[in-house]
Amino acid sequence: MTQQTPIRRVALNLAAAGLPVLPLRPGKAPFANCHRCANNACGGRPNMKAAGPCRCPGVCHAWAAATADPAVLTSPAWMAAWRRATCVAYHPGAAGLTVVDLDDAAAVAWARETLPATRVVETTRGEHWIYRGAMSSHNAVRPGVDIKSTMAYARYLGPGTGTMTALPDVVRVLAVKKTCAARPGPHTIAVPAEAGFGECRHRTPTYLDRGIAMAEQRITQARSSVHTTVYRTFLAVLSTHGRCGCLTDTHVTRLFTAAQAKGESARHCTDAWTNARTRLGL
Predict the structure, then answer these.
(1) Domain definitions of the chain by residue range
(2) How far apart are the C-alpha atoms of 7 and 235, rounded to whole Å?
(3) How many helices (DSSP H) and strands (DSSP E) are in the chain?
(4) Which class does domain 93-182 fall in?
(5) 269 or 166: which carries more pLDDT confidence?
């Protein structure tokens, strides 16, 4: 039997607990794509890109490579990566988690005054506060604070201390404020919306709520090709509201919930949302 390295042993234990993991190379960065996947020429991991599925057996596409499948984690390509790895990372959003990454003492002090207590893991310069519940990832939501959840990875630095609690609204609000700051006004994009969605009428919540309700209904009433319906519905919503900053995590959660009720996995929902954003250049 091949002797396991400590890093790989940690990764397998985390995967057995349902946490999708990936190795990080020196510099705490993901491994570079192989030559077949360079510049995403392969089309990306399954459902990540419209060009088609990636069949590469290697550790490519950063956070999208994260997996809990022991057959993948012990494959020859991954074994080679584990031997070169310096630490283990994981995809929080795929496990239904959100990491509030506090990068310095000032950020930690802010969190202790502002956020509800949860599981805390010490980092080199600060702390990771881990909550139950996934959301979109955002960097620099305030000085020294990043949010790592869907479409992001976080280093595994130990089990931490304290009891993990539900993701609070105060964290979600940080992301909403970040999105609004990045997209301050209306902008018309070239990709046409599907029927039932038109130009965003700002400052009219009823219009947005009606659009989200129509999107939920479209997904719920799908009788076949559910994943295609989910993707096209996400594309329609984002083509109308994706640049104006009016979409919140509450709206996205409603769409994901409708999709999962039709049998879509959380990972497929995230991938379909990513595909739609990529198609629209968001």
Answers:
(1) 6-90, 93-182, 205-280
(2) 39
(3) 9, 10
(4) alpha beta
(5) 166
**Which tokens belong to 266?**
């959380």
What is the DSSP code (8-state) at residue 201?
-
Tokens (6 digits) for 60: 């490519």
Q: Which helix (H) or strand (E) holds 52?
A: none
Q: Could you give the CA distance from residue 169 to residue 173 in angstroms, rounded to a whole number?
A: 6
Alpha helices in 26-95 (DSSP H): 70-73, 76-84
Give tens-digit pLDDT for 17-35: 999 999 999 888 899 888 8
**210 vs 164, more confident:** 164
Distance CA 44, CA 267 (A): 14
Q: What is the largest CA-CA distance in the chain?
A: 64
- The overall average pLDDT reported for the chain is 81
Work out the average pLDDT over 132-155: 91
Query: Crossing angle of helices 205-220/249-261, nearest 10°?
Result: 20
